[in-house]
Design goal:
Helix content is 45%, strand content 15%. The protein has 170 residues and is of the alpha/beta class. It has a single domain, classed as Rossmann fold, CATH 3.40.50. It has a five-stranded parallel sheet, sandwiched between helices. Helix 1 packs across helix 4. The protein is globular. It starts with 6 loop residues before the first strand and ends with a helix.
Length: 170
């Protein structure tokens, strides 16, 4: 039996420098929630920008992952501008993305209507709950017939409805 085709999962979010609080947060999320969950989906290889070893322009590599990877998991904690830029690119690409945020963080208006997995690093049970929620979200986006739903797809749908409604009306 052949192995499943390899897929890529790119992790977006605040990364920060060295031992900064931001990096510690990013590492907790990656190492204790995302990576353990994604081991249940062995066809996926998980990447994060600071872990890429290929020489080249970082921004080009990031954008390539955003446009081409099968799945993006985006941490919107701290409202990091780079993360939101990257999320916008992914939304425009109209490919699966799962939003996550640390409990107690406010979600910006433009994406507040879309589901985001809330997580906490306070207790081991919180980590387990986040893994369960992430696993369910990954399973959902893997279903045949899954439809991308984000602010860009919604806006494009509204435009398409308006355009089709005005056809033949003059």
């Amino acid at each position: 039996m052949a192995d499943k085709a390899e897929k890529n999962c790119f992790v977006v979010g605040p990364i920060g420098a060295g031992d900064s609080d931001v990096r510690i947060h990013a590492d907790w999320l990656l190492e204790e929630i995302i990576s353990p969950t994604m081991t249940e989906f062995p066809e996926y290889k998980v990447h994060r920008a600071d872990k890429l070893s290929q020489p080249g322009l970082i921004d080009t590599q990031v954008i390539t992952h955003l446009l081409n990877d099968d799945l993006v998991i985006a941490d919107i904690t701290t409202l990091n501008p780079n993360a939101f830029y990257e999320i916008g690119i992914r939304h425009r690409a109209q490919k699966p993305i799962i939003h996550m945020h640390k409990s107690g963080e406010k979600i910006p208006f433009d994406i507040s209507a879309y589901r985001s997995i809330e997580f906490s690093l306070a207790r081991p049970t919180d980590l387990r709950a986040a893994r369960v929620a992430l696993k369910a979200a990954v399973e959902a986006v893997m279903l045949e017939g899954y439809e991308i739903d984000n602010p860009v797809t919604h806006a494009r749908g509204v435009v398409a409805i308006k355009e089709s409604a005005s056809v033949g009306i003059e």
